[in-house]
Design goal:
The chain has six helices and nine strands. It is of the alpha/beta class. It has one domain (about 5-200): 3-Layer(aba) Sandwich (Rossmann fold), CATH 3.40.50.150. The strands form two sheets. It has a seven-stranded mixed sheet with strand order 5-4-3-6-7-8-9. Helix 4 links the parallel strand 3 and strand 4. The structure holds S-adenosyl-L-homocysteine (SAH). The site of S-adenosyl-L-homocysteine has 26 residues, from strand 2, helix 4 and strand 4.
Length: about 210
């Protein structure tokens, strides 16, 4: 276990802090969540690799830096309700759960959602609620959200998600572009939406009504 702890600390310094992640709450959360609990057993020795890894159902757990960049852009203070679309392994939900009050995660593959629920319970995370379905439409039942994180690339910012943002709320979503995806931050102020590209990235496609 010390081995995983040492690799995790090393990941935080070399992959995150050295590459522009400076939000101390994000760095602390990523230094605490055991990524090895969210990858398939045969890949555990690669849990802190600087890359995405397969998790089944042709999906991947995102590269640590990407999870950190999304969390940093959301600028969470701790009291927010967060909607996460594309929970996958549950790793990013576990990180978000340390940064906000409550996380609602939506995953379209039931097998992944089941695995994520087990992994989250296994590491003692109790403020994530998981749903199976098409998250491209969001989850209006619990809106508005202080922040929304989308972990799969969309053709355009999903209007349903923007509509479910609280005033001043933040949405991070990868938008498909000609060469790869643009990880994009949107902020809602009344009817006005400000948008800013954070980084070029590569994600699996968002499949659904407001996806592909
Ligand atoms: N954040 C995840 C990364 C998962 S990859 C992690 O840390 O492991 C993106 C996930 O989005 C995949 O699991 C995929 O099944 C899911 N996905 C794609 N389209 C979706 C949609 N419309 N609604 C919910 N989940 C979706």
């Amino acid at each position: 276990m010390t081995d995983f702890a040492a690799r995790r600390a090393d990941m935080v310094e070399r992959q995150l802090r050295a590459r522009g992640i400076e939000d101390e709450r994000v760095l602390a959360a990523m230094g605490e969540v055991p990524r090895e609990a969210f990858v398939p057993e045969r890949l555990q020795r690669r849990a802190y690799a600087d890359s995405a890894l397969p998790i089944g159902a042709e999906q991947t757990i995102s590269q640590p830096w990407v999870v950190a960049a999304i969390c940093q852009a959301l600028a969470l203070r701790g009291d927010e309700r967060v909607l996460e679309v594309g929970t996958g392994s549950g790793y990013s939900a576990a990180v978000l759960a340390r940064l906000a009050a409550e996380v609602i995660g939506i995953e379209r593959h039931e097998s992944l959602a089941r695995g994520a629920a087990a992994a989250l319970a296994g590491v003692g995370v109790d403020n994530v609620r998981l749903l199976v379905g098409d998250g491209s439409r969001g989850y209006p039942e619990r809106a508005p959200y202080g922040a929304i994180a989308v972990h799969a690339s969309a053709p355009a910012p999903p209007p349903a998600l923007i509509a479910q943002l609280a005033e001043g709320g933040r949405l991070v979503v990868p938008i498909a572009a000609a060469a790869g995806d643009d990880l994009t931050l949107l902020r809602r102020y009344g009817d006005r939406v400000e948008s800013e590209v954070i980084a070029p990235c590569r994600f699996v496609p968002l499949i659904g009504e407001e996806g592909f």
